[in-house]
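Tutorial handout. Part one gives the primary structure; part two gives the three-dimensional structure as tokens.
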Amino acid sequence: MTICGLCERELHTDAAEHHLCPGCTNATAERLDRMPKLYAALAAFLHSTGRRPELGRTTPVEAPIPVSEPALSLRGPGGIVGVLEDWRSAMQHDRGWGQPAATGTTERRVTVAARALSMNLDWIAASWPMAGAFAEEIRDLERSVVSIVNPPVKTTRVGYCPTVVGGEQCGAVLRATAGTALIRCRWCGTSYPPETWLALAATLHADPTAAK
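Part two.
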């Protein structure tokens, strides 16, 4: 049985050798297409020290905004560009091609490496034993960037929805996001203002099996 090197699902193909399923191949193509955009998005998380070079060494009125070290690392030599170029180099070596040139700005190199890998993705998915490891690292790389540029919203569970729907308690888990002024049940749509949250919190001690 042949399995996908990324999702580990069985591959239904007549080919004697295949390494990525169509879904993982398409997902990897989309991730490669997004890499230049993600690289550019990280720039917003690199802050200057607030000093103007033409004014010399001056003491800023306010403390400088710290640089996001993860963003700096991902935009550095061993970050996005390093990962993409290393995989492109390995791919071209295994295809018997010459080594790619790494020239231009880092932004340009990210675009070129991502495009080269994308153009060879059919071969990678069908014939390259390293396809699974490659697709996994590209997925993890995207997750690392997204965790900075679009982090998940943290929520706090506050209770179970007490609204009666069709003769039965809704019972869905209610969650609040930081700074929210209203909690809305995702199942029945009932809204709960802050003055009701204390009562909702008491339902957390109730039998959770009653909730959906």
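Part three, for discussion. The two ends are 39 Å apart (CA to CA). The first strand starts at residue 155 and ends at 160.
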